[in-house]
């Protein structure tokens, strides 16, 4: 696990977050072709969340979320709190991030971004569109044996099965498989604004993993967009944020 780069020593922590359900806030570095960006990561306690938090924090709650189970409401709330911090870091305050027809976050004009949540964690990354087309981030807990079976059946093809099985890596297989799944999620989130549709896990295929560099390379294997041609190599960065908690990011 030492080969998965941890960013915690570089993170900036905020020990006085706004909502009582948000326990702490920090920033996670993201590499991009324009330099260093940051995701805003919140550590949360869903047991402190109540539906009136939306009104108290002036965050709009879509009907589809309001009619869902409390955990889904909490995840949405925490994600929007992270988005608020990310936008504020880019000089944008008092702007809501509504949900689109495909349940995607709709960012203010001139900005791109991504939101992710996983149990008690939520994160968001935002940047101006200048020089960039998309950002995708994803947080995942390392898959347990049952989840691994599902990942192998749904998210990877036969080539990737063989590559994962044969990799000479110090990273445990369960972490590698989770990283690959997360990397695909980051890619697909980052390209949604361009392709305007959800794409299958088969659209990108693993090429290799650099343990010490915290880098995975995946190849686009179907035509998605003029700027996302078949054969394009996507460089996805990964980190271990907590024991058993992986974070991936893709910026293009």
Q: Which key terms come to mind for this protein?
A:
6 helices; alpha+beta; 2 domains; 252 residues; five-stranded antiparallel beta sheet; globular; Ribosomal Protein L22, Chain A; disordered N terminus
Structure notes:
The protein has two domains: 130 residues, Ribosomal Protein L22, Chain A; 111 residues, no CATH class. The strands form two sheets. The protein has a five-stranded antiparallel β-sheet, covered by helices on one side. A hairpin with a 4-residue loop joins β7 and β8. The chain is α+β, with helices and mostly antiparallel strands. α4 packs across α6. Helix content is 28%, strand content 30%.
The CATH architecture designation of the largest domain is Alpha-Beta Complex
CATH class of the largest domain: Alpha Beta
Instruction: Characterize the overall form.
Output: globular
H/E series, N to C? EEEHHHEEEHHHEEEE
**Care to count the β-strands?**
10
Write down the Rg.
18 Å
Average predicted local confidence, pLDDT:
91
* Terminal CA distance: 28 Å
From the 3D structure, determine the CATH topology of the largest domain: Ribosomal Protein L22, Chain A
Q: Bin the strand percentage.
A: 25-35%
Number of helices: 6
Low-confidence runs? 1-10
Largest sheet: 5 strands, antiparallel
